[in-house]
C-alpha cells in the first residue's frame, strides 16, 4: 500500500518501554526471594559473558522510585515489566512471600502516581529453581498447575490495578535456546524435549488466559512473541518453499496455537514423521481450542526477520562480523554443530540478507520488516497488537558525562515510521514498548550490549556505581511521546 499522507497515531497510543525482572532487579537473595534457574545458570562457568549474572543487575529493586521518577520525567505512558515468580512464591508452589508481593505493589503504586500504565509480564524466563529440580521444569505437566496457581495469585493481587497482561515472553526463544541449542537453562540439546516443554507451555498459557477472563474481565491479556518475517533468498521456488517452512515453524508454530488452538498442519506432520511431536490429548486439544483461552491482543517483540534458502547446505552462511557475535543471537536458526538429536535434513537454511545493514551484534536492521510483521500478524489473526519490545543493542560510550546515542535514535525513528505506515495500512496497534527503559543485563552479553534510554553505570565486573544518566535518546523519546509520534527530529 502507498500513502501520500500517514495517519496519526491513535490519541491514547501507549508509548512505553520494557524490562524484565532478572535483567534489572538484582536483590537476588533479598527479602525471602527464592532461586530461579537463571540464578544458578549464570553462575556456572562459561554460560554467560564474563560470568555476568543478575545478582545485582541495575539494582532496580532498591532504585525503583528513582527509575519511575525518570519515566515520569520522560512522560512515558506505559511501562512493561515482569514479575520474578521466585520472588513471590520462592519454591514455585506453596508458600507466598509477602515481601515479594509488596515490592510489586509498591512499584505499581509508584507507576499509578506517575500516570504510567503498567504492563505486567507473568513469565520472562526465570522459572523457580525448585520447579526445575522437583519436576524437570516445563518438561513436566506439573509445572502447568504451578504456573496456573502463580498466575491466580497475581490476578488476585494486581487484577484491579493492572489492565494489560503478558502471559509468556518469547516462548519461541526460550524453548529453542533452553532445550534445543543449549544456550539457556536447562541447557539441553533435544528437539523432541523442546517440543514437549513447548507443548506444556502452550497449555499453561491457554489455561491462564482462560482464568484471567474469569478473574479480570476488564483487562486484556496475551503472550509476547518474538516475531520475524521470513523472506525467501531468491525467487527459486525451492527457496520460497524453505521460507514457507521457516514461517510455519518460526512463527505459526506458536501464534496459530495461541490464536486458534491448532498446530500448523504440515509442520506437525513432519514432526510426527521424525517422531518428535508430543502427544496432544483430547482434553488438551479442547483447552487449546477454547476461545476463552485465546488472547485479547498479541504482544510482538520485533528485532529482525530472517532470510531462508533451501536446505542444500547444513551450515548457515554468515559474515565474519556476524560470526564473532552469533553465539548470542537468540534468533539464529542453526546450531554450531549438528547434534545427534537434530533431524538430518533441516526444514530450511537461514542465510544473510544482503539488502539490510547490521547492528554491532550482527542483528539485521530491517524497519520495513516491522511493517511486514505487523501486516502479516494482523491479517492472519485480526487481534490488536502491542509492540512489547524493539530496540538497538550497542556499546554506548560515556564522553564527558554524556551518551550521544544518535545511532539508537535513527534505529528507533525508522521503526516508528514503519509502525505509523502499518497503522495507516489499517493495523490496530495499541502501543509501542521500546527495549529498554534503563540499561540492563543482557542475558548473554552482560553490560557490553546496551539498549536503554537511561545509561546505568554498571559493568561486566558488576561493580559500577549504578548511577543513572539519561542518554540523548531520552530527550528525543520524550519529544516523540509529547508529539504523539510526529516529532522524530533530534535537537542539537
Ligand atoms: C529478547 C528478550 C529480552 C532482551 C532482548 C535483547 O529476546 O525478550 O529479554 O534480552 O531480547 O536481547 P539481548 O540482550 O540478547 O540482545
Automatic annotation (TrEMBL):
A Pfam cross-reference name: Glyco_hydro_1
GO cellular component terms listed in the entry, alphabetical order: cytosol
Ranges that cross the membrane: none
Biological processes annotated in GO: carbohydrate catabolic process
GO MF term set: beta-glucosidase activity
Keywords: Glycosidase, Hydrolase
Gene3D superfamilies xrefs: Glycosidases
UniProt-listed InterPro entries: GH (IPR017853), GH_1_N_CS (IPR033132), Glyco_hydro_1 (IPR001360)
Top-rank taxon: Bacteria
Protein family per UniProt: Belongs to the glycosyl hydrolase 1 family.
Name the UniProt record assigns to this protein: Beta-glucosidase
Organism: Lactobacillus melliventris
Amino acid at each position: 500500500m502507498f500513502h501520500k499522507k500517514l495517519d496519526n497515531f491513535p490519541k491514547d497510543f501507549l508509548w512505553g518501554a520494557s524490562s524484565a525482572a532478572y535483567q534489572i532487579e538484582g536483590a537476588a537473595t533479598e527479602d525471602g526471594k527464592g532461586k530461579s534457574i537463571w540464578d544458578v545458570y549464570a553462575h556456572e562457568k562459561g554460560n554467560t559473558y564474563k560470568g555476568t549474572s543478575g545478582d545485582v543487575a541495575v539494582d532496580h529493586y532498591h532504585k525503583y522510585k528513582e527509575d519511575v521518577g525518570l519515566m515520569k520525567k520522560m512522560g512515558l505512558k506505559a511501562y512493561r515489566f515482569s514479575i520474578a515468580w521466585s520472588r513471590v512464591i520462592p519454591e514455585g508452589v506453596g508458600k507466598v512471600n509477602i515481601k515479594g508481593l509488596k515490592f510489586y505493589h509498591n512499584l505499581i503504586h509508584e507507576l499509578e502516581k506517575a500516570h504510567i500504565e503498567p504492563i505486567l509480564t507473568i513469565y520472562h524466563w526465570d522459572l523457580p529453581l525448585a520447579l526445575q529440580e522437583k519436576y524437570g521444569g516445563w518438561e513436566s505437566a506439573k509445572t502447568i498447575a504451578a504456573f496456573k496457581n502463580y498466575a491466580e495469585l497475581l490476578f488476585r493481587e494486581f487484577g484491579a490495578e493492572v489492565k494489560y497482561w503478558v502471559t509468556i515472553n518469547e516462548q519461541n526463544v526460550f524453548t529453542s535456546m533452553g532445550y534445543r541449542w543449549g544456550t539457556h537453562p536447562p541447557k539441553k540439546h533435544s528437539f523432541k524435549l523442546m517440543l514437549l516443554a513447548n507443548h506444556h507451555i502452550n497449555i499453561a498459557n491457554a489455561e491462564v488466559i482462560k482464568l484471567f477472563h474469569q478473574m479480570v474481565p476488564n483487562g486484556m491479556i496475551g503472550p509476547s512473541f518474538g516475531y520475524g518475517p521470513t523472506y525467501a533468498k531468491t525467487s527459486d521456488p525451492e527457496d520460497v518453499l524453505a521460507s514457507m517452512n521457516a514461517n510455519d515453524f518460526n512463527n505459526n508454530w506458536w501464534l496459530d496455537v495461541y490464536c486458534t488452538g491448532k498446530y500448523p498442519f504440515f509442520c506437525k506432520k513432519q514432526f510426527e514423521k521424525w517422531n518428535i511431536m508430543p502427544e496432544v490429548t483430547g482434553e488438551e486439544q479442547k483447552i487449546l481450542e477454547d476461545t476463552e483461552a485465546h488472547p485479547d491482543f498479541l504482544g510482538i517483540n520485533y528485532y529482525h526477520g530472517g532470510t531462508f534458502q533451501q536446505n542444500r547446505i547444513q551450515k548457515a552462511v554468515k559474515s565474519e562480523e556476524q560470526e564473532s557475535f552469533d553465539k548470542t543471537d537468540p534468533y539464529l536458526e542453526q546450531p554450531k554443530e549438528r547434534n545427534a538429536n537434530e533431524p538430518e535434513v533441516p526444514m530450511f537454511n537461514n542465510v544473510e540478507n544482503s539488502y539490510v545493514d547490521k547492528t554491532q551484534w550482527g542483528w539485521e536492521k530491517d524497519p520495513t520488516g516491522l511493517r511486514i510483521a505487523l501486516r502479516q500478524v494482523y491479517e492472519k489473526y485480526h487481534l490488536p497488537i502491542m509492540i512489547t519490545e524493539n530496540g538497538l543493542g550497542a556499546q554506548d560510550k560515556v564522553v564527558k558525562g554524556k551518551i550521544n546515542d544518535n545511532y539508537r535514535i535513527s534505529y528507533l525513528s525508522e521503526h516508528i515510521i514503519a509502525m505509523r505506515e502499518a497503522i495507516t495500512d489499517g493495523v490496530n496497534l495499541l502501543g509501542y514498548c521500546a527495549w529498554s527503559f534503563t540499561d540492563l543485563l543482557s542475558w548473554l552479553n552482560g553490560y557490553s550490549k546496551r539498549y536503554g534510554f537511561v545509561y546505568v553505570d554498571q559493568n561486566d565486573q558488576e561493580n559500577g556505581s549504578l548511577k543513572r544518566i539519561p542518554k540523548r535518546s531520552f530527550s528525543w523519546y520524550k519529544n516523540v511521546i509529547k508529539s504523539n509520534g510526529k516529532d522524530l527530529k533530534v535537537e542539537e
